[in-house]
Each structure stands twice: as C-alpha cells, then as structure tokens.
Amino acid sequence: MSTTVSQLDQVKSGPWNGGRSPFALEYGKIMMWFFLVSDAFTFSAFLIYYGAQRFAQITWPNPDDVFQSIPGIVDHGYPLVFVGIMTFILIMSSVTMVLAVEAGHRNARKEVIGWMIATIIGGLMFLGCQALEWSHLHHEGYWWGSIPAHYEGIDKIGAQQFANLFFTITGFHGFHVTTGVIINIIILFMTVFNVFEKRGSYLMIEKVGLYWHFVDLVWVFVFTFFYLV
Amino acid sequence: MEHAHEEHHADMSKKLIWKVFFYLLAITCLEFFIALALVYHGPLEKGPLVNFIYIVLTLVKAYYIVAYFMHLKFEKMGFIVSTLIVFVFIIYFIVLLLTEGSYLNIHLNHVFS
To answer: How many beta-carbon contacts under 8 Å exist across A and B?
Structure first.
C-alpha cells in the first residue's frame, strides 16, 4: 500500500507531464513553423487550382515556347536556362542562410553578418531576375487578363488562365521573397547592433532562416509545375 | 530557451550543409538534363512518365530542404508529426481538384468547341 502511494507521489518526468516544452523547441520557432504550414496551404491551393485548370483546358501554352529567352542576351531557343540561373541563385542563398544559422550557434557574430549579407544579395538577385522575366513576358503580351495577339494555340482561354496563374503565383512567391529580404535586412541590422549578442542567443536567425528556406521550398514546386511539366 | 536548442546542433555541420547543397544541385542538374537533353533536344515526349519523374525529383528536393535546411529531421517525433500530418488534406485536395479538372475537360469543352 505504502509503495503505491509513494509511486503516485513521485514527480513525473515524461515529455508531456508539464513544466517544459514537449517539443523541446522555443515558442517563437513553433509558431513560425505553424505559420509556414498555413502559408504552405495557401501556395498548395494556388498550385492545385493551376493543376485543375491545366487538366480542364483543351490546350495549354508549352513552357518551352513561353520561357525560351534569356532576357538581355538571347530572345529565343533557350528554354529553362534563365530559370535555371534563378533556381541556382535561390538554392545558393538558402545555403548561405543555413551557414548564417550555423555561425549563430557558435555565436560567431562576424560570420553571421557575412552570411546574412550574402543571403540578402542572393534574394535581391533573384528578385532582379524575376523582374526581368516578368517584363519580358509582359512585352510578349502576357499579363493578367491578356495574352499575345499572335497566340497560336487552339484554346485561348487556356492561355489566359496560364497567364493569370503565372503572374499570380510567381507574384505571390516574389512577394514572399521581398518580405524575406526585408526581414533579413532587419535581422542583419540587429546583428550589427549586437542585439543578439546581448540576448545571448542567435535563435532569431533560425526563425528567419525557416521562413527563407520555405521561400526556396515553394520555388522548387513553382519551378517544376510552371517550367518543367 | 537556450539549452532547449543547443542539444541538436552538432548534427548540422558545415560539411553536411555543403553535402545537402550538392545533392540539391545534382537533382536540379538531373532535371535540366531530362528537360533539355532527353525531352527538348532528345527523343522523349512530354507526358505522364516524364512528369512523374519530375514530381518524384521535386519531392526529393523538398525532403532535403525541409529535413536538413529547416532542421525538421532533428526535431522531436511529436513535432514532425504535428506539422506534417495536415498535408493529408492537401493530398486529398489534389485528388479532388484534378478529378474535377479532368471531368471539366471532357464535359465542358464538349459543349463549347
């Protein structure tokens, strides 16, 4: 009898018995994850609607024809090259972001600053490429609500849906890149002004890093469904 | 707050970061090889087979980004499940809307063209 009572009196120390985070993660980081899950739902909804439209229309513009230029260098005949450069830039800036996080774990302030600057430059380069891509397509006649006058496919509605969805989805992604760059700049200044040094932890870099990787992750899917398939 | 995240840092070393980067780069290069050498200049046709390969490669890339760069692989199992389980609904949504799209392809276009 007495043994049973003492067992009940024992302090439980399992992960779900209270007193500490069962996930062993800081609150803000968990919230960043849940925000990204909801954001992933938004992007999924966009891309799934794109898929549904593509399945529903008779013809769809061939991405090898639409995206065959390298703005400023050649006008046609080179599909995927320009978007390949963009993809490389984004993957690269994702790597510099992880390196910033890694440097943050070692409290190496100088390295964090260096990698954050590299990440910001990568983000800006990506945005510049996207601006070139958009203006090139706009000159060809694609925009929200318009397609080139000489469009040769049978299904003009399909081409219209393609144009609308391309600008909406890459625009929404570009908006994420833009906010990501702004947040990265804020974080860079916080690092420069020793905010994290005083706080004793570079955890904020990790949270911003999660957001930045998510932007890269979305691009992986946009790239496949708009440019490859 | 500090010791909570200090325990799983050893596993994301610089070496591993570059290794994951080269995996991502290699997969992307493979996608370009298929798209340019095998499809655009080569014998393969765009279609379900090539699309299937692209989607598998995309999911592999997504795995490496989420697992290593976003560090999810090193979190507690409970957290991994609680973030990923909801994507069951996304899979269901894909099935639903693509079915709807194919239905419209057959029935709507019949009327209009």
So the answer is: 150
